[in-house]
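Risk register update: the risk of archive-format incompatibility is retired. Evidence:
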Amino acid sequence: NIITIEDPIEFLFHNNKCIIRQRELGDDTKLFYTALVHALRHDPDVIVIGEMRDLPTISTAITAAETGHLVLGTMHTIDTAQAVDRVIDIFPAGQQQQIRLQFSQVIEAVLSQVLLPRIGGGRTAAFEIMMASPGIRQLIREGKIYEIPINLEHGASEGKQSMDQALAKLVKRNIVTREDAVMRSSNPAKLDELLK
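Archived output:
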């Protein structure tokens, strides 16, 4: 049982070995938060939130994850560490330590993507991947979000990948130009090091 909350619905899914119910802001609901609260009453297994941008939505998403639902959501951030910061910082200062604990227990992964022009035309995506390993969970609990990028660089065996590592792979495979990769890198010196 999958429920999506979107603004707008961009792709129509058809039921195939599951039940997918798509809700659209404007027609079906006014706010992501209210749609999420109502979605929980339908006993979903998976909830997809088109955009997590306010305190009530993020708070309810964490609660849904704590009660066993798989919650997928999008945020507009530049990397995985900033996504974690955004979730925690949206809460009042007095609640942030509790949220760090709760969030560290329910997070499974954060993906950050950038689209780059492909050599020869079209576009391709580069992905930063942060899997919620015990080390990542501990960094979140302790408020050491600034250490996440280093953890990603050394976590390939756990499925992690920094954006610079992803960009370097695309350049080495001649999918994107070095110049386009450098433009999207948050640390061009690190990218140069990976390309050597």
